[in-house]
Predict the 3D structure of the following.
Amino acid sequence: MTNAPAGPGPLDGEGFSRYQYGDLLRYCCGVLENLDVPADDARHVAECLLYSDLRGVDSHGVIRLPVYARRLQAGVVKARPAVAVERSFGAVALVNGDNGLGPAVGARAMETALEMAAASGIAFAGVRASNHFGAAGYYVQAAVRRGYIGCAVSNAPPNMAPFGGRERFLGTNPIAVGIPAGAEPPLYFDASTSVTARGKIIVAAQRGLDIPEGWAIDPQGVPTTNARQALAGAVLPFGGAKGSAISFLIDILCGVWTGAAFALHLNTLEDLGSVQNVGHVFVALRTDLFLAGGEFGRRMDEILGMLKASKPAPGVERVVVPGEPEAWREAENQALGIPLSPQTVAELVGLGAEVRVEFPPPRAAHCEQKEPSA
Amino acid sequence: MTNAPAGPGPLDGEGFSRYQYGDLLRYCCGVLENLDVPADDARHVAECLLYSDLRGVDSHGVIRLPVYARRLQAGVVKARPAVAVERSFGAVALVNGDNGLGPAVGARAMETALEMAAASGIAFAGVRASNHFGAAGYYVQAAVRRGYIGCAVSNAPPNMAPFGGRERFLGTNPIAVGIPAGAEPPLYFDASTSVTARGKIIVAAQRGLDIPEGWAIDPQGVPTTNARQALAGAVLPFGGAKGSAISFLIDILCGVWTGAAFALHLNTLEDLGSVQNVGHVFVALRTDLFLAGGEFGRRMDEILGMLKASKPAPGVERVVVPGEPEAWREAENQALGIPLSPQTVAELVGLGAEVRVEFPPPRAAHCEQKEPSA
């Protein structure tokens, strides 16, 4: 969520190479399948990770594949979970993720919500016994493709201080909403409830750079611009007390309401000795209940057009629709390839060697291969 | 939503007198009934306004009764609307407010959502053809009292610039969520999607005070601390791009999805020549679907206790639960009376004289009356 035009991403920089989407998809699926993940599940996980990379949200992209693999190898995530609707009542279902990979569980639960919403107009699918599910925005695409409004929320391990606090208590609990339009592209809102991704602070610390005020506090609870102090402390919720409350509400819905873990009970992704029991909620809502014959799409086109035509602030080219800059980045990365850092590539090459899946060459190499040989 | 202990409210100050809740309730009901509003509807409107005053959110309290009365007198709001469920499908209903007073329409729609959710677990009641509905938090109380999670959102006329914009486009579209607990008091989150209430800027302008940075922009879109320039310009959404997107999503749900007015189509409360056609959405969700025998309440008590026990930032006494400071204020105002400014009292005395309903004496006068006469 930025207002900036599509340019180099926050993790873009020197030494980055671009890789074709299809090549990375095959690589990710191959790694997961060789770790005993069924092909359909592997594809959801791979698509979810690459959805983030395409949209420039590198922190939730293929950079996470190694830790997913480590968790499978350590046995704290199941490769072949028995994901099932544990209970259902009216327009609400509880999906038991049986400790499977988050994107495989999440895609199934969003599907359940969509099936129920066809008959009930609205449906809620709560999920317990799941894991880190990557970018929330991945799931709402399935709803939008079928003309539904989709929403996905998840809780997450404590990384963030609540408003007025100094200790990590809240997750960066993400929320995504997708809304189809008529002639206009759909609206995709996808955001964490922190001011900024922790990944950006990690990068700043690696480069010895300061971070802007308001992103984080040090271990004593004092606002800091020192990236290392920030990493030792906690990130802050977006929007002060209001954003802190929204993050807390997401934890209550995903954790308390579903029967999953919540707040300080949630273990981190990096803790290879403990299951996570993450909770999610997926919502599907029909758009054709009150307005006939494409009227919803026409009204969406109107409000999106109004927003884009709203006068910009000084120095801003145009007011953007939520998700619009990420869609520009997606088009660019589909065309030019997904940029990956040398560190990420090295890690993926190593992982591939370990599970006997070759990491693909960068896109430039593809181009060279197409030239006639001398 | 503040983290401050309950103290004098933002509109509290010199010359304020305190009035008993029951006295103000009778006065408000009397005024509305004399303007032909049925007793039940009048009571919802009066309770909604006083809910705000009790909780220290004076901007949405009895200060709004005069403009509600003017709109009834001008015929742009109906005193006796035929509020009805226009359509329903599964767990979703569309309530047509028939241009009645917002709180009367809203209370009826929340009731509809609760009735449907009993059978379907979750229910959405969309509303069109309504009006300004006061504090969103008023409605979710009905859900919490019956053990449901309740949510209320509304769109509102443009007062706020979108992120990256300089023109008023978004309403301060409020959101409220109420969640019952076990032994702990329920959680009530009730917030506008602006950084601050426009009412606070009006007060600052009246007193010739500056406002903090980040609250508003001037008519050229430049951030300003000058209250008068801010009133001529626009308030800003909370949380930058993310809060701006959330406000926009609320307008899409309440306006675009329901068939109500949206964005620049929404007329202000003060425009006595035009109907508003405001849209709302009310959600009711059962808490007993996945957890048996009070387990949800016990888990709520645990997470609320965890939050309160989280270490506070320097200078903060304790981390508070969303809505907790407002609950303290409510207890204080119930005990001591609701403080009203001399200007508000003068306006209400005048309105009362016009419709032949006497405005009550302040609480101190009550106490004096109880003393034995000399």
Remarks:
- Chain B touches chain A through 81 residues (CB under 8 Å).
- The longest strand of chain B covers residues 122-130.
- The first helix of chain B runs from residue 21 to 34.
- The CA atoms of residues 53 and 100 of chain B lie 22 Å apart.
